[in-house]
């Protein structure tokens, strides 16, 4: 349950009793709802335990959301970069083909109209 407070998470360097009291204060539990033993804490009402469990689950859920958001952001950036590179390659390729076809010299009759009178009659 150390995850419930900033002071006790990720590690508590102090007296365990003080750490327990900080956790219980963060959970808004009165002193009469729990009792400290030598090595354990005794929670008197089951509702108090359920409250602690719910707070703990919410914290874990928050951490999971942070991790998911970071992964989704990383994945989206990677996908966007990949798409940009693919688009740039396509555009570059088209420019290269266009510039090559513009500067290409006309070599003459490509379909051989001089040797095919039936095609020449169609063209005129």
From TrEMBL:
InterPro entries: Myosin_head_motor_dom-like (IPR001609). Residues 1-57 form the Myosin motor domain. It comes from the Eukaryota. Keywords: Actin-binding, ATP-binding, Motor protein, Myosin, Nucleotide-binding. GO terms for biological process: actin filament organization; endocytosis. GO terms for cellular component: cytoplasm; microvillus; myosin complex; plasma membrane. One of its GO terms (molecular function) is ATP binding. Belongs to the TRAFAC class myosin-kinesin ATPase superfamily. Myosin family. This is Myosin motor domain-containing protein. It comes from Allacma fusca. The lineage of its organism: Eukaryota, Metazoa, Ecdysozoa, Arthropoda, Hexapoda.
């Amino acid at each position: 349950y150390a995850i419930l407070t900033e002071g006790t998470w990720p590690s508590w360097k102090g007296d365990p009793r003080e750490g327990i009291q900080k956790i219980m204060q963060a959970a808004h539990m009165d002193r009469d709802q729990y009792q400290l033993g030598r090595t354990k804490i005794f929670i008197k009402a089951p509702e108090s335990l359920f409250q602690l469990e719910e707070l703990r689950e919410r914290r874990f859920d928050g951490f999971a959301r942070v991790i998911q958001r970071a992964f989704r952001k990383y994945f989206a950036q990677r996908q966007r970069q990949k798409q940009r590179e693919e688009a740039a390659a396509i555009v570059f390729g088209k420019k290269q083909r266009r510039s090559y076809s513009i500067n290409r010299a006309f070599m003459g009759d490509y379909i051989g109209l001089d040797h095919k009178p039936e095609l020449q009659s169609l063209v005129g």
